[in-house]
Amino acid sequence: MTMGSNVSLTALSENVGSAIVSLGWSSPTGEGDADVSVLLLDGHGKVRSDADFYFYNNPVAADGSVQLLGKEPTGDGSEDRISFDLTAVPAEVERIVVAASRYEGARFGELDDLKVTLADAVGESLLRFVIEDAGQVSAIIFGELYRRGEEWKFRAVGQGYESGLAGLATDFGVDIEDDEAESGTEAAQEPEAGTPDAPPPATLDAVPAPRPPAEEEAAPKKRAARPRTAKKRVTPPRAPAQSLAENESWRQARLFPVSALKNDRDRETRATSVLLSVMAQVPRFGRRITAPFGAPSGRMETFTEVSLPHGDTPRRPDGVIRVERAGKLWTALVETKTNGNPLKSDQVQAYMDIAARRGYEAVITLSNDVALEGSPLVDVKIDRRRKHQVALWHLSWAEVAHQAQMLIRHEGVGNAARTWLLQDLLHYLQHDNSGCHGFQNMGAAWVPVRNGINDETLCQGDPRSLEVVESWERLIRQVCLRLGGELGQKVLPAQRTRRGTDPGARRARLADQLCLEGRLQAELRVEGAPGLLSISADLRTAKLRTSVEIPAPEQGYPLTWAKRLVRRLAEAPADLHVETLVEGGTGGPRGTLERLRPEPADLLPKDGSTRITGFRLSLFKGMGSGRGSAESGFIRSVDDAVHRFHTSVVVHLDAPAPGRTAAKERAAV
After folding, report:
1. Phi, psi at residue 512, to the nearest 5°?
2. Distance between CA 329 and CA 349 in Å, rounded?
3. What pLDDT, in 10s, does the model give residues 429-478?
């Protein structure tokens, strides 16, 4: 699409009762990011109340019409997705504005490949609009959905705002209170959501109170809370209550026991039943799982071991999810694998055929594996001649555990009984005998590639190196999910790629780099961290290196910087390596924290005229050799290294100062 053009959704697809809108971008430094927002407007082009403004502090509509699904990594950056249930949008809403904003002085002109795409209920991409020159604006309206009679249309907009999210929202009638300091204080004092003893607040900042009717405005009342575009601080979980058990041998009674699981079939059956039952009983969790697959918001029922006719032999999918909304049904078949067992193409193909014949909307596969863009887990054939199309989606057990952990520890579900159900689900998934541990095997190519690097016999173009690169990418995505669940913050793989980079070509380049250098590398973007968290696995030396680069302060003296950094790292490990980064890229002074604590001045270059640009902090750890997730395995060692580095080093560092990230991006363009 081009700027200003519009198209009818019904002209593109018959499955537009719900839609997924994705806003995407890439960054030259890998650090650039933005946040999406949605405004529901009436016939006058204004919100009906502040509650029609959906953004990071108010991500879900009570009626299910809008849900911000969060960020997903892509081959050349990341994208922020929004689920719309167009059948649930109130009749008085005429337009839905889809926008994004940046913060801390950053501008959209510093990002590449700004685009918006829209997919229908079966995941079929219907349209794409690319913004070529964003300029120095901090907020952009990418597009809007609007009514024309009984149908919905989409218009490509591309309008920028220099005043950011607050200015954009104010233009559409939202009453903004943008006091960041006050917002942070109130957020820090909030009781933890979902705990039975937490008294409910009078008004929630996350869901702005609606404006009173005109006849009530004259009465002297306390002013309703207004939405704040300043980001809330995450409320850390409270320490669990002290156990009443006499000793550690006493095991707490569980709703979902794992002791009776004897084989993989038992594990698959139990895991499917446990997950689907909790999804039905905890609506917010069920909605969080199904919304990315195009499911509407409504009454959900789940089923297991359903027999469906298929030729001479009936088929029994592991589960069925059914959602009812306004008399219409959305149905998905579920195929589950546990304990690292791979999905079988013939099984998934059979369920796709059954779903197409019966008019179901989706097939969802669930396993320990992690899906990658451009690298499908199963090979199925989709008959495009059929009028009814079925979407095929994949979900990792690690993603399920991540969503449960986010709701339990950081967001809450507003009900003590539902919180307890989620806790029991999470305990089940994390138990050694459940088989639901996420990605846990680097594959058959791991040992030959590792040995080939050590023997210098691995050649460029060897397909086994590409298999290892794909496994590494899956592992990094799982590490992001686990760390993000613990922190309650967004953690995403960072890609330093340019517009239009093909995922397959990027992986092939990384495979050649692995053959030449013997290293696997990745970068993680952790919200609130001073820089990208880097992880490098050197297969020649069997060492893992985790590091972060901190930019030098813009004011002050170098000796003051060094002393302050050492003070900030008072509780960091003594074997932390600190390196001074200097202009020109030549190596600066370096040493372990143990040696630098008494003499911070050793971090300063001998030549006083050399300009310091920053500091690099690194921890080294032995790399596990096995391909699995056992204590001595490679996967466990990577997970432990990232966790240790963040908890012992990164948490002690200052967040990036406003404008510093933007300056780095401008320098990289």
Report:
1. -65, -40
2. 22
3. 998 889 998 888 899 999 999 999 999 999 988 999 999 999 999 999 99
Contacts for 239-243: CB closer than 8 Å, 24+ residues apart: none
Please give the pLDDT value at position 238: 56
Tell me the one-letter amino acid at 182: E
Instruction: Determine the Cα–Cα distance for residues 52 and 227; give it in Å rounded to an integer.
Output: 11
Amino acid found at 598: P
CA 471 to CA 482: how far, in whole Å? 17
**Cα-Cα-Cα-Cα dihedral sign, residues 646, 595, 637, 531:** positive
Q: How far are the Cα atoms of 155, 234, 423 from residue 416, in angstroms, in the given order?
A: 43, 20, 10
- Give CA separation, 472 vs 84, 110, 452, 490, in Å: 33, 29, 17, 20
pLDDT of residue 259: 75
Rounded Cα–Cα distance for residues 424 and 62 (Å): 26
Q: At what angle do helices 416-430 and 397-406 cross, to 10 degrees?
A: 150
For 539-608, give the secondary structure using H, E and C.
Answer: CCCCEEEEEEEEECCCCCCHHHHHHHHHHHCCCCCCCCEEEEEECCCCEEEEEEHHHHCCCHHHHCCCCC
Cα radius of gyration (the chain) = 26
**Do residues 290 and 276 touch, judged by C-beta distance below 8 A?**
no
Q: Which of 52-66, 165-179, 534-548 has the lowest mean pLDDT?
A: 165-179
The type of residue at 583 is: E
Longest dimension (CA), the chain: 83
Q: How far apart are CA 604 and CA 626, in angstroms?
A: 41
State the pLDDT at residue 76: 63
User: 642 exposed, middle or buried (CB, 10 Å; 0-12, 13-18, 19+)?
Assistant: buried
- Secondary structure element (H or E) that encloses residue 364, with its range: strand 362-367
pTM of the model: 0.75
Q: Which residue has the tokens 């405004």?
A: 39
**Residue 400 neighbours by CB under 8 Å, 6+ apart:** 275, 289, 366, 429, 436
Q: What is the pLDDT of residues 249-301, one digit of tens each?
A: 887 788 888 877 788 888 999 999 999 999 999 988 999 899 888 888 888 99
Q: Are 549 and 529 in contact (CB under 8 A)?
A: no
Q: Which residue is it, tokens 């969080």?
A: 288
Question: Among residues of the chain, what percentage have pLDDT more than 70?
Answer: 86
* Distance from C-alpha of 289 to C-alpha of 82, rounded to nearest angstrom: 13
User: pLDDT by residue (tens digit) across 44-84?
Assistant: 999 999 889 998 878 888 888 898 888 877 766 678 889 99
**Which one-letter DSSP state was computed for residue 293?**
G
